[in-house]
Amino acid sequence: ESVLSRIASVDPVVGAFIKVAAEHALDRARKLDARRKAGDREFGPLAGVPVAVKDNICTCGIETTCASRILKGYVPPYDATVVERLRASGAIIIGKTNMDEFAMGSSGETSAFGVTRNPWDLERIPGGSSSGSAAAVAAEEVPLSLGSDTGGSIRQPAALTGVVGLKPTYGYVSRYGLVAFASSLDQIGPFGHDVEDVARLFEVIAGPDRRDATNAGRTPPEVKFGGEPSLKGVRLGVPREYFGSGIEAGVRARVEEAIKQLEELGASVEECSLPSTEHALSAYYIIAPAEASANLARFDGVRYGYRAAGASGLLEMYGRTRAEGFGPEVKRRIMIGTYALSSGYYDAYYKKAQQVRTLVIRDFERAFGRFDALVTPTVPTTAWRLGEKLDDPLSMYLADICTIPVNLAGLPAISVPCGFADGLPVGLQLIGQHFADTQLLQLAWAYQ
Ligand code: GLN
Q: Which residues are annotated as active site (predicted)?
């Protein structure tokens, strides 16, 4: 009840939620209370904890729209694996959070259902695409939320709203029930106020799932916290390409201070180079749209959600449904992706992008021969003003320059707050080795 009343008082301004499932949540809470009163002591690790879920994650009986008109009215008949796991842990799903349409965007502004505002400055964007999941935690509407990260969509809004966000290793968390954007890059992950909260939610959602063929079938080791934080023996690399032109002075200063702090905790810090970084963004903006163009073909007005009225035949119905149902950024991605995959252009664009992806992976492999983790800014800037980049897709794409290489390589990475620049939050990104999510969380905890 207290969470619902907090949402009722701040969300009309923040706009973090597309749907608040108040009745559903209260019903769950009452059932948990009744079990407790009856003497039941067998509760899961998140019993009674309200969790908000990004609206591209299927929730049985609760509308799931991906913030798109084309899915308006779609009520999934099943739960995503992560939602099933949340329910089994005793968590209470409080509602569905706003996002960039189909998770395509970096500001939260491409939602068909209105913008989300940054709680630190309501004239600014909260980042995206998991805009609502980040803002809901930052505005203290919920203690925990789930987002998805294809190219930065958890870490980037976490950084811009001053909360913690983890993108797990690709394959640790099941994608079953996550509406696919770019299947080889998408991963669900947690938001919270601190590293410990994020670790607890990660433990609940990660693990084997036969319904997702890309799931690694691995259970992460338990994340243990406690004692004096120490980073003795930890080798950290600082890739110089992440501090290039375009990074704001305030962001650079906070990240450099954080690196000093990591050294004071006992870590050894050394500069390194990931030379293919400069090509990662271009490769991503071929690969992600290519995969999206295939994944989004299922939205045709027949199977899900919205259907345009009054068409005289099937093809016209498809065309009008998509014309009316998809927003401009989604259409742009489908067209770029279809183009990059079409015969004659496949070798020049898609194949080339995959080759660049391999180079990015090799860069990281080389670095992890010498280092346990890498340290970078999460975003080169602080939160920008609403509308500032909306008409300039290229400058919007540049906002993900520090987060995208990590998805291309399938690595885990976390963003933790590292202070403020001009009153706005700055995020520190820590990148770990494959399936070293537990060590990464422990490292982030020591820093925090
Ligand atoms: N901003 C990036 C994009 O628009 C990443 C989005 C994401 O991680 N879902 O593709």
A: 54, 129, 153
Structure tokens that stand for 206 in this block: 């990660």
Closest CA to 363 of 239, 184, 183, 187: 239
CA-closest residue to ligand 1 atom 5: 151
- Enter the tokens of residue 207: 């693990």
Beta-ladder partners of 374: 237, 431
Distance CA 113, CA 99 (A): 9
Nearest CA to ligand 1 atom 10: 104
pLDDT at 395: 85
393 alpha carbon – ligand 1 mean position (Å): 12
pLDDT confidence of residue 189: 98
Domains and CATH numbers, the chain: 2-205 (3.90.1300.10)
- For 369-421, the pLDDT digits (tens) are 999 999 999 999 999 999 999 989 888 888 899 999 999 999 999 999 999 99
Which carries the bigger pLDDT value, residue 305 or residue 291? Answer: 291
Going from the Cα of 149 to the center of ligand 1, the distance in angstroms, rounded, reads 7
Residue 41 pLDDT > 90, yes or no?
A: no
Ligand 1 contacts (CB < 6 A) are: 103-106, 129, 149-153, 181, 288, 400
Report pTM: 0.98
Q: Provide the pLDDT for residue 393.
A: 87
CA distance 40 to 49: 17
